[in-house]
Please model this.
Amino acid sequence: MHAKTPTTTPTGEALRRSLDGPFHALKQRWRDEVTADDVVRDTALGMEEARDWTLAKVVELAGRNFVTAGFPTEVGGSGNAAESVANFEMMAMGDLSLTIKSGVQHGLFGGAIVNLGTQWHHETFLPSAIDVSLPGCFAMTELGHGSDVQSIETTITWDATTAEFVVDSPTPTAAKAYIGNAARDGRMAAVFGQLWVDGAHQGVHVALVPIRDEQGDDLPGVTTGDHGHKGGLLGVDNGTIAFDHVHVPREMLLNRYGGVDADGVYRSDIKSKNARFFTMLGTLVRGRICVGGGAASAARKGLTIAVDYANRRRQFRAPGLGEEVHLMDYLTHQRRLLPEVARAYAYGFAQNELALQLQRITDAAGSDPIAARELETRAAGMKATLTRWANDTLQTCREACGGAGFMSDNGITLARQDADIFATFEGDNTVLLQLVAKALLLDYKSTWGDMDLRGTAQKTAKLIGTTVLERTTARSVIERLVAAADLKPEAERIRMRGWHVSLFEFREQHTVEGLAQRMRAAAKEKDSFAATNACQTHMLEAARAHIDRVVLEAFIEGIAECDDDYVRALLVKVCDLYALATIEANRAWYLEHEAFEPRRSKAVTAEVDKLVGELRGRSQELVEGLGVPAGWLHHPTAAVPPLLP
Amino acid sequence: MHAKTPTTTPTGEALRRSLDGPFHALKQRWRDEVTADDVVRDTALGMEEARDWTLAKVVELAGRNFVTAGFPTEVGGSGNAAESVANFEMMAMGDLSLTIKSGVQHGLFGGAIVNLGTQWHHETFLPSAIDVSLPGCFAMTELGHGSDVQSIETTITWDATTAEFVVDSPTPTAAKAYIGNAARDGRMAAVFGQLWVDGAHQGVHVALVPIRDEQGDDLPGVTTGDHGHKGGLLGVDNGTIAFDHVHVPREMLLNRYGGVDADGVYRSDIKSKNARFFTMLGTLVRGRICVGGGAASAARKGLTIAVDYANRRRQFRAPGLGEEVHLMDYLTHQRRLLPEVARAYAYGFAQNELALQLQRITDAAGSDPIAARELETRAAGMKATLTRWANDTLQTCREACGGAGFMSDNGITLARQDADIFATFEGDNTVLLQLVAKALLLDYKSTWGDMDLRGTAQKTAKLIGTTVLERTTARSVIERLVAAADLKPEAERIRMRGWHVSLFEFREQHTVEGLAQRMRAAAKEKDSFAATNACQTHMLEAARAHIDRVVLEAFIEGIAECDDDYVRALLVKVCDLYALATIEANRAWYLEHEAFEPRRSKAVTAEVDKLVGELRGRSQELVEGLGVPAGWLHHPTAAVPPLLP
Model:
């Protein structure tokens, strides 16, 4: 049996309120009403048992109204996309299999029906999608095409003779792959395929296709497969689906952006196939935002466990000291964990802002395409950044707990394994960062799909010295901070936020403008693949610099909104650590671009050392502030007391 | 069913011969005689099934004489420690659970008997340790003490009245923890404890203690526990062992370095308790060398899978090109995988050298303590470096294969999960790197345990400009290379090995000397913990710089020994990539220390880009050269064709 769940300190509570921000009440409801029994998986479960547990718990949470926020009010949701992101983040503090199972069912399958379907689809399918009586698949990725969705091979062909659509996988690589709910539980799939009507290609559309009967057997023409054991997410039944000329009624096409009328004619309000595709995909941006936030939640859980362990575990006697030293007192240990705690805060504030931005765009209902593309860009960049960070941080946490961290009962290993694939699904991180760079070059004026790299290069308007970084809500605050820092001699600026902001902005501006120059030069080359390929690493750099700056500004905004003086002062220090650790991580770039001298670079490292020492005494409160319920850190039946001794 | 195992290309074969070096015949025997059925685990096995499979396969391989090299010739071994390392590395290309199960049984339990025991122990226990009829534990780590072995709490007390030793766990934290074979299979344990004879403390010694009867039940006074599910190594039954005044006969103490004679008196040839402890520990250095090599083998397997996939998988159509582009043609993909292939070669050559060094020290039988400490230092540094690299590289490989990489049948995920703990066991990496730094400061003149950090600081003789880097076998070659580079203008040096060596040496020399200065200053401070703690990150830097240089020299030596002109030219390019990628990774340090200008730093990055492009066409042959049998990349019953499509 475990010791009683410790009470959160007042500072921990106040930090939590600040980091929860607009979602505090919603997140607090999870903490008050959801127990470890509801959301923490027993590590001993085998694959089939894990699948059973996961399905049962998703049904339960749906029944208790914890995962329905994203659905329209008519079917019992709140119609609030931002809240559905916050729900996803809370669930992810419990178990990521559970989170992804619900994400597949409610976010992707349900979300496709909500966003791409019309009233009949909503009325007919949403109630059973919500209560999971109709387990569904989101059948987009194929064996042959993952990142390049526009090239999928599945066809959805209008058959005028029967007035039905025929869904088909014309080649082995056209089989849908890695699809959640496909191996076992799914009864219906939202199938992405190339729509053909009367011999005309209309681009990728989505049809609802029943795949299994009541007994769970494949329906005629459908062949499902089981991927079996995976690197993680054992509770999610990923598998393949292949179609052999499966007929579905005309109504089964999700026709919000284009469909075949009763007269057998294709109609769409969007003329360009390309624009239609990216409009449809754009409505699914929530999934990407959820995945970034969910990965960050898992990292927060890992940090909570590792910091708590480091504050209790002792090893080696220090010369001249009687007692053995706490791990957290070692500089190397502070260096491993505390900058990541600072990043957890930074990404948390930025994620809140992103969720609110999602809500604004959803409310705007397509009236502001530039703002929508800005949202998609930020969602892509944040997803890539947060999932990369979560993977690295969970590994760091495992190692920081030594052998104890490797014992699954101690709460880190399942999160580590489950978070792995977050770097790949909902968009491969390397591909996403390139999309971000492309959007930055084009000032969100065109959709990602509008042009290839050569076209992007030709269209980019950026010139050295001309880039205006897009405003965030904190812009006026930030200009004051920069002006204040500019007045100080360099030696006194190291903890001045304005200096940090200037350096972040310089890096973004310079990498984006430098990329534009390179791309323009590349566009003139004969071998345009080779020339634009050579720009790839610069694209990643520019995208990362952009997201770093956006995150810093969100942190500044989050601090401005904190009304507790003590907590605000603490957050300022955490933000110092985020900013300086990020500058330190990029100091090679700054030195190469002579943004500062070698001496200054060493001073940044020394200041990070100093800051982790200053925050060491607040480390326990800081991880409480990350908001993971203490009772969820381990499964209630864990065989060993957590993180012995 | 799989496609037929592809034939290795002549270049791949030649690279393999070169990288296998002195162990080619031994490693080739594994490739010729061992099948996937022998060494590749079915990913679908649950924990208990995995334990069954692992035990059965270890018994089989022992019977076929694949894991016995390290044992004395009298009991059927070859007495060759270097060969036992090579065997370990080959087994690790199959499955790490299997490798660690054999490592616990033959390397640690058997190794303790070989190295710390005397003739009676050898004759009595080695035959059954080898054929696994006596499954054994290496019971060193305790719940309360892992890295700090000298502080373990278990006691081994001489009871003169019964002429027996009493083994006891006086506190809950004294329980042995994370012990392989402890949860299920073990029948006897080599127990580390504080030896007390007639009220005098003699330091840590090892006693053999039976722990289970024939039926597998705990013997009286022994309590074993099962850690259950772990982050990996599911085939190894790790658990706890606690002792309640368990009596064992006098002979059961492994008494090579100290024991109680028939007259009840403690005798040892080594006077100092501290020296005795580090001498005993030193004889166990092979385990650390194996762990580094085994992790590197797993990374080689991951790289083989990921590079092969990247050479077959296509995604996105390039502007102006008809076909979709192979992943391996993208610069970002080349950047992710090819520097790691280069590191695989670098670490492989360095690991061969380390194994030979182990053999020399073993043959010297204690006659050269300075050389022995140099070996221990290098083993510690290589273990930390190779296991860190393997963890990072396996993760990179998983991500580079996208969703396919996450499907366990595709061969990466089990290796990734199993390799994780290699960063912790056989010495936590952060602790090991500090030991390396300490040894460098003391020029191997004292053992690690001889003094604390303050003492180390006072004893260090190093001053800026006085450090002489210890010679490696390649020293004379290297001096010629450096001299040749010195004659060239800087712009022409970028692929000159001498320039690389100079930069690697500068970094080592400067970090070690800088550390010495800091340590001396710290030793004068009143709060010596705080002062030496502030040096910790510098210790890690110095240790890494040292190992990087040692590895580069080993690579140079490996190339010098290659007698195939074509292969040598290819290896030169791979070594260029290793050297320049390492310089690039440390360019912030070089810029801070004004070893080169910003322009030069950017040129290094550009040259790495160029090199990965040049090696891209050789990537398939290069991974063949890593020596992983093609038939071992996936389990024979894998449910899906590997890495579809």
In short: The mean pLDDT of chain A is 93. The radius of gyration of chain A is 25 Å. DSSP finds 23 helices and 13 strands in chain A.
